[in-house]
Amino acid sequence: MRIYGSEMEYDYRSDLIMTRSGFRCTCALCEAEGSDSPALRQRRWELKAEAELFLAANPGGTDIRLQKPTNGQFEEADRLARAIKQTYDVAKYKCLLRTVS
Ligand SMILES: [Zn+2]
Predict the structure, then answer these.
(1) What is the DSSP letter of 96?
(2) Residue 2, φ and ψ in degrees, nearest 5
(3) Are residues 2 and 44 in the same domain?
(4) pTM, two decimal places
């Protein structure tokens, strides 16, 4: 179970920290996500859920070492990745975003 980290949604994470510790976290991640609109955070959450469904339905994803991608897999993975990335303001998240190698 992931407790702290960017995988946990902001609202849940901030509520958990408040409940357990009695304070509002002001780390860089919480400040950045907290300044995003609830609608944007919701959109990001929906896209991440969509990406998780895509990955579950496509074991091995688009890794050609594991399987030969079928028509549309690369395009769908790319569309989801771009859509999620667009929910992050580049300047605001500059120091927080991790790159996947
Ligand atoms: Zn925090």
Answers:
(1) T
(2) -85, 120
(3) no
(4) 0.73
Determine the structural domain holding residue 26 and report its residue range.
Answer: 1-35
Give the Å distance between the CA of 76 and the centre of ligand 1.
32
Indicate if 97 and 54 belong to the same structural domain.
yes
pLDDT in tens for each of the 101 residues of the chain? 333 445 578 888 899 999 999 999 999 989 999 999 999 999 999 999 999 999 888 876 556 666 666 778 888 989 999 999 999 998 998 888 666 55
Dist. CA 26 → ligand 1 center (Å) = 5
- Same structural domain, 75 and 29: no
Q: Are 41 and 22 found together in one domain?
A: no
Ligand 1 geometric centre to CA of 28 (Å): 7
- How many angstroms separate the alpha carbon of residue 17 from the centre of ligand 1? 8
Do 55 and 18 share a structural domain? no
Cβ burial, residue 33 (10 Å; 0-12/13-18/19+): buried
As for how many domains the chain has, the answer is 2
Reference 33, options 25, 41, 23; nearest CA is 41
